[in-house]
Design a protein that fits this description.
By secondary structure, the chain is mainly β. Helices cover 0% and strands 41% of the residues. The protein has no helices and 7 strands. Strands 2, 3, 4, 6 and 7 form a 5-stranded mixed sheet that branches. Strands 1-5 form a two-stranded antiparallel ribbon. The radius of gyration is 13 Å and the shape is globular.
Length: 94
Amino acid sequence: SPFLVEMGVEGMEVEKAGMINALKGHHHIIINSNFIADGDIVPANAQHIHFGLGQTETQLELEAGNYSLTLQFADGMHQSYGEKMSKTINVTVR
């Protein structure tokens, strides 16, 4: 830690938050929790990291331990595209 996280999406385009445009949005990383239901707003807190500037990579710093990281894609107003636009991986930080 820190470690590089690269984010991608298929079938959508990454853009900054602020507008709702069809087939566009931005990434969120959710630490140790599941995807956000379709249409629900992604919370803004330490567990739900927003990338509203359209970022596609970040340096993530976590304490040593095991984590699940869920990448969630959402529209310009942070409304989730649901499970179909999410992916979860497990990582071990040493």
